[in-house]
Design goal:
Blueprint (H helix, E strand, L loop, with lengths): L12 E11 L4 E6 L3 H4 L4 E6 L2 E12 L4 E6 L15 E5 L1 H4 L15 E4 L5 E9 L6 E5 L5 E5 L5 E5 L4 E4 L9
Parallel strand pairs: 7-12
Antiparallel strand pairs: 1-2, 1-6, 2-5, 3-4, 3-6, 4-5, 7-8, 8-9, 9-10, 11-12
């Protein structure tokens, strides 16, 4: 449940898509998503960036158009004119919704901000700062202590354990991978 007494902080959310154009005359809008966690976790609201402020909107209904697009109707937005302020806005979800899912169902963007540790020697690799999803083989972009970045394959075979509470991902990496 959404708590109206607290402000939504950027570190508590992650981007799951972007609003497209208005659809029809009744306040529906095209939602282009990169992560369907809002559907899998049965969320009743999404968060949109409006004038650089994170604002929650309750979902009245939605229907899928494809595996990356949905038509969404938000509460209290009842016309094509009323929904225009959301066109092209970024859409976020609170990270806590990912925590409700099993580890196998969690989306990779959820792990941005986690500390990555090498399971072989217990040393910190760095902090996951981004996900490269431009190819079929996704990569964790990890910022090391010295400020440089290293790319680590985001493959489940390399993930030894995930400690959600501590926000730590322990990796079993092939020897020499970090030396590339």
């Amino acid at each position: 449940m959404l708590d109206y007494r607290k402000m939504i902080r950027p570190e508590d959310v992650y981007q799951i898509g972007r609003m497209g154009k208005a659809h029809g005359l009744k306040g529906e809008i095209n939602f282009q998503f990169t992560d369907d966690v809002w559907d899998r976790a049965d969320c009743d609201y999404i968060i949109c960036e409006v004038d650089s402020i994170l604002v929650p909107f309750f979902i009245e209904e939605y229907r899928f158009r494809s595996d990356s697009t949905a038509i969404m109707k938000l509460e209290d937005i009842d016309s094509a004119d009323a929904v225009q302020f959301l066109v092209n806005s970024k859409v976020y979800l609170e990270k806590k919704h990912q925590e409700e899912l099993d580890d196998e169902e969690v989306s990779l963007p959820y792990f941005i901000g986690f500390k990555m540790v090498d399971g072989g020697n217990g040393k910190d690799i760095g902090t996951i700062v981004d996900i490269d999803d431009k190819t079929d083989n996704w990569l964790f972009i990890v910022e090391k202590e010295d400020g440089s970045d290293v790319m680590i394959p985001a493959h489940e075979a390399f993930i030894a354990t995930i400690q959600k509470e501590e926000r730590i991902m322990v990796m079993d990496l092939p020897s020499g991978l970090l030396d590339l």
